[in-house]
Amino acid sequence: MSLGSHLVELRKRLFIAALAIVVGMVVGFILSDFVLVALTQPIADIAAQQGREASLNFTDVSSAFDLRIQIAFTVGVVLSAPVWLYQIFAFVMPGLKRNEKRFAIGFVLAAVPLFFAGTVAGWFVLPHMVVLLTGFAPEGTTALLTARSYYDFVLKLVLVIGIAFVLPVFLVILNFAGVLSAVTILKSWRIAILAITLFTAIATPAADVMSMFLLAIPMLLLYFGAAGIAFLHDRRKKKQLSNLDIELAV
After folding, report:
1. Which residues contact 14 (CB under 8 A, 6 or more apart)?
2. Which of 151, 179, 245, 247 has a beta carbon 3.0–4.6 Å from 174's, enabling a disulfide?
3. Residue 246: what pLDDT?
């Protein structure tokens, strides 16, 4: 494909992904009351566990509406994950042969559950992190959390971890496409461990070591799982090529 064709293809994929997110945002706005209640539960835990007043504050007139839009956007991204994940795959891996189309189906079937698993993992550690971090405040103080900054914290934690859980699938797809070998993936295990450790340290507060490990362990398992799948694929491909050489020699 020429550069112009790539740009046209990119525009097409972005439009489809954006349209799916907008549809998801409509659903997200309808569910915003439910999500907002769930978001404020960790704040209620602060009051219960630390014996201090805690509340979510809206500092200007439009803050409440802005927060609902942010919630709608996040829910829209999560609900439309099957669509935009496929669009990413379709753009990165264009021109697949007919017998390779199953890669697209396999990618979506693997990536979507992993993305949801990542968002659930982020949501699971969220209350513990909120209670832990606010616990460093002196006794007798009040936890007044600004709605915008609080939700930015939640957004980074939930969505970024969800996307991180999908990355091993890209390794497998690149291996199936012949771009990365299993040996290359395995040789990079030190870099992978360092990158995952740094990522979890950034995505979670440095003080919350337990949350960091809770996120790092499944990501490491997914990485080595991807390497294992790539190894099996390379061995099968090598065996097929060996059988083909024998048939040609005969």
Report:
1. 87
2. 179
3. 66
